[in-house]
């Protein structure tokens, strides 16, 4: 079983940070991806990354790599934003493509439920969107938003190692359940 983890954006992506500039979204995404990798590897799952700590990997390069490697699923990890200033939008949401496969919907639902129950954050539901990482990949693919950088409380959570590990455990648990269901 081969899983591709995609930490959204990159170390130099402009914008994509908390309103006070304390945290770049990529820091969160990449830290969670690392923890997920550790969890999955312990269960014998082969994990690959489509992102790079040193540079911003273009979306096309990420989806091309996933298709070329023939991974079984791609999970793109993000932190959300509503506008660029502090506001009350909050919670967790997971996206599939607008015309998702059944396996994508199952994976998204498992991740969404697992994340909400482990973190206790509110659920905004499983949604559909025309995002490149879920559109241009040939395998089940989902994009998860683990909380809002523009919400003062969630921004604090997103910066904590404890919350990042919690998110990672939830995502890894969901992927392992999905793998089991597929067998
Ligand atoms: Zn993002």
Number of helices: 6
Query: How far apart, in Å, are the first and last alpha carbons?
Result: 10 Å
Count up the domains. 1
- Give a count of the beta strands, DSSP E runs of length 2 or more: 6
Architecture overview:
The protein is 43% helix and 20% strand. The chain is built from 6 helices and 6 strands. The chain has a 6-stranded mixed beta sheet with strand order 2-1-3-6-4-5. The protein has helices at 25-41, 59-69, 102-119, 132-135, 152-158, 161-182; strands at 2-7, 46-49, 73-80, 92-96, 123-128, 141-148. The protein has one domain: Aminopeptidase. By secondary structure, the chain is of the alpha/beta class. The mean pLDDT is 97. Helix 1 crosses helix 6 and helix 3 (102-119) packs antiparallel against helix 6 (161-182). Helix 3 (102-119) links the parallel strand 4 (92-96) and strand 5. The protein binds zinc ion (ZN). The site of zinc ion has 4 residues, from loops. Zinc ion binds at residues 8-9, 25, 78.
Secondary structure blueprint with pairings:
Layout lengths: L1 E6 L17 H17 L4 E4 L9 H11 L3 E8 L11 E5 L5 H18 L3 E6 L3 H4 L5 E8 L3 H7 L2 H22 L1
Parallel strand pairs: 1-2, 1-3, 3-6, 4-5
Antiparallel strand pairs: 4-6
Helix pairs in contact: 1-6, 3-6
